[in-house]
Design goal:
Layout (H helix, E strand, L loop, with lengths): L24 H7 L23 E4 L9 H19 L9 E2 L8 H10 L4 E3 L7 H10 L3 E4 L16 E3 L7 H11 L5 E6 L2 H16 L5 E6 L5 H10 L3 E5 L4 H10 L7 E3 L20 E5 L5 H10 L9 H18 L4 H11 L18 E3 L2 H9 L4 E5 L2 E2 L11 E8 L5 E9 L5
Helix pairs in contact: 2-9, 2-10, 3-4, 5-6, 7-8, 10-11, 10-12
């Protein structure tokens, strides 16, 4: 997969790989039955079976051009564990962060973590590697929380209820893209999308969201990377008020063709896969006024400072808030369950995130309005008092649903200047992770 990285210092946008977290529907459907898990650990009633020590493992699967993504996740996990232990750990014992290895062989990493007696594992980054981790860990009743997986099909993957993610599915951006169009005064929309699993899914979600919001007509046009001329012409001929570009590998070529077709930058809205700092890679002012969305939130100044204290050489903070929250959610779930076993954590995560598992969910916390808390330490007084908690961390409210997906998705909004480079200009929230 091709890495598309945002450049800049810690005070600018965090870097990211658009494509690293995506996965096609065919691959998921082909493997969806491999894990062979029965039941649903997310909503099950379980008995304590842990050994009293909460062990957290990391799957760091980024190599080559994407290797920079490992450092932020590792620093965030270390920070969270340090804070948890400073607050007393789990049942008075230090939480253990298991030794970390970097390897693209996700199944091998998962097996090593099972052998090391991990109760919960954070990772992987790449959605295409998630099934390998799920199959190994779910059979061992180890909870898996990815801070970066976005492929919509993973919601349907058979994990036996042991899989969660603190990153929103790709299709969650649809409502935000449509809102940006409407905020710009658009009443009609064209969607130019790459002919891929990602492009097809997100463009369909954009179309549905646009129609629901009263934008009509909506013109859809697919293209193969390097062959966007006809799609650009179709968008021009439709004369829409705004054009949404949904693409990864073919994004730059599609934007160039839209420019050649006479569509100005201020009419363009880029999905997350199309976002990057294009600079001189595009014609002068091609993106002037264009807007783009990027999933997640920019780390707070406090979190930035704490992460740099853990790793003074940290240059990038992609997925740091989501990783930090994944570790804290696991520890809070273990504290509420009074058990460190993976099954107990999986059965409690929905509740402590403020989410809902539907009518089949077993009550994991006392009745009553939960106490909102933002760190493990903040959550402990309510837990000890027998009050329900709702963890809302650095990445914002999580609220897992019955599929282990977040139901509150956050996005950063960027606006391009005449130099075809973008600056952070705002943020938006989507109501759900999937359409």
């Amino acid at each position: 997969m091709t890495a598309r990285r945002r450049t800049g210092t810690l005070k600018s946008a965090p870097s990211a790989v658009w494509g690293a977290t995506a996965w096609g529907a065919a691959a998921v459907l082909a493997l969806g039955g491999c894990s062979g898990n029965a039941g649903n650990a997310r909503t099950a009633s379980v008995e304590a079976s842990g050994d009293g020590t909460l062990r957290i493992g990391l799957i760091l699967d980024n190599t080559g051009p994407q290797a920079f993504l490992n450092a932020a996740q590792l620093a965030a996990a270390k920070l969270a564990v340090q804070e948890i232990n400073a607050a007393g750990g789990h049942k008075g014992r230090p939480v253990e962060l298991l030794p970390q290895n970097t390897d693209a062989d996700t199944a091998a990493q998962a097996r090593e973590l099972v052998n090391a007696k991990a109760d919960v594992v954070i990772g992987p980054t790449d959605s295409s590697r998630a099934p390998a981790a799920i199959d190994v860990l779910s059979k061992a009743k180890v909870t898996l929380i990815s801070p970066a997986n976005t492929a919509a099909e993973l919601s349907k993957y058979n994990s036996g209820g042991y899989y969660f993610r603190t990153a929103a599915a790709d299709v969650a951006q649809a409502a935000v893209l449509v809102k940006l169009a409407r905020d710009g005064g658009a009443k009609s929309l064209a969607v130019v999308y790459e002919d891929s699993g990602y492009g097809t899914e997100v463009s369909a979600a954009v179309s549905a969201s646009a129609k629901g919001a009263g934008l009509a007509p909506v013109t859809l046009s697919a293209f193969k990377p390097g062959e966007a001329q006809k799609s650009a012409a179709a968008a021009r001929d439709a004369a829409p008020d705004a054009v949404v570009v949904i693409a990864r590998d073919g994004a730059q070529g599609a934007i160039a063709e839209l420019t050649n077709a006479g569509i100005p930058g201020n009419k363009l809205i880029l999905g997350d896969g199309a976002f990057q700092q294009y600079g001189s890679g595009l014609g002068s002012k091609a993106l002037d006024g264009a807007r783009a969305v990027v999933p997640g939130v920019f780390p707070s100044a406090h979190l930035q400072g704490e992460l740099v204290a853990v790793d003074a050489g940290l240059k990038d903070m992609t997925f740091a808030p989501e990783t930090y929250d994944a570790v804290n959610l696991a520890a809070v779930a273990a504290a509420v369950a009074d058990d460190d076993a993976g099954a107990s954590i999986a059965a409690t995560l929905i509740s402590v995130s403020g989410g809902s598992g539907g009518s089949g969910q077993t009550a994991a916390q006392p009745d009553g309005k939960p106490s909102v808390c933002k760190t493990y330490k903040d959550c402990l007084p309510a837990i000890k008092a027998g009050t329900a908690v709702d963890y809302d961390g650095e990445s914002g409210p999580v609220r897992f649903d019955a599929n282990g997906d977040v139901t509150a998705a956050n996005y950063m909004v960027f606006t391009y200047g005449a130099d075809n480079n973008a600056k952070l200009t705002g943020s938006e929230a989507a109501g759900r992770s999937a359409g």
